[in-house]
Amino acid sequence: FAPKILQGMSLLLTAGPTREAIDPVRYISNHSSGKMGFAIAKAAAEMGAKVTIVAGPVNLDTPLNVNRVNVKSTQEMLDAVMEQVHHSDIFIGCAAVCDYRVADIANDKIKKSAEEMALALVRNPDILATVSAHKQRPFTVGFAAETQDVEHYAKDKLKRKKLDMIAANDVSDPALGFNSDDNALKVYWANGQFELPATDKLTLARQLLTLIAKQMKPA
Ligand code: C5P
């Protein structure tokens, strides 16, 4: 049983990795499983929210009552998010977005020849910062994966990307974070913070959404 604390709200979130093509058969990506984002989508739908998940390539089933948009590249993820952002009350950037894309995607498979080759990359847009700069901005939540000085870097990201809240996880612990079923989060907002100790990602998702609901409707 989940209390319907998000009834009448719409939540938009990103999840999983993005994938940047090099040529028709190769790409650059990362090890994000999408599990945290999908757990948030499931928990939010159970709490009564209307949920849209913009998902990179992941091997996960769509949770019940969740609208899913599949994308590959960072630009495609940004385009899908900006299409939905106007009618969203909450945005959570949970995706592990590729910060760079290949400058010129080859039309044909690249043949091996020289001993060394260089791949030119260009910066991708920041989806989270684009959402938080939008005039009809939803309550905007970011994730931060850090290996050191978690609090310092998370608080810096909160300010720099003009977020309402940031959930940081220490990815230096191999038992938690990427790919694992468990995680632990340190959550920061402008004038507060809360620690969510290690547990399964669905429990953590419910706790995070409860914190978000409280911050949106201060008592
Ligand atoms: O700056 P950094 O990439 O560590 O910030 C992580 C947060 O920003 C995550 O919420 C991630 O989903 C989001 N992000 C994004 N677009 C990018 C890079 C990161 O939305 N291009």
Layout of strands and helices, then pairs:
Elements: E1 10-15, E2 20-23, E3 26-28, H1 35-46, E4 50-55, E5 66-70, H2 74-84, E6 90-93, E7 100-102, E8 121-123, H3 127-132, E9 139-146, H4 150-160, E10 165-170, E11 182-189, E12 192-200, H5 201-216
Parallel strand pairs: 1-4, 1-6, 4-5, 6-9, 9-10
Antiparallel strand pairs: 2-3, 7-8, 10-11, 11-12
Helix pairs in contact: 1-5
Bound molecules: cytidine-5'-monophosphate.
Summarize the structure.
The chain is α/β, with parallel strands linked by helices. The chain has helices spanning 35-46, 74-84, 127-132, 150-160, 201-216; strands at 10-15, 20-23, 26-28, 50-55, 66-70, 90-93, 100-102, 121-123, 139-146, 165-170, 182-189, 192-200. Strand 2 (20-23) and strand 3 form a beta hairpin.
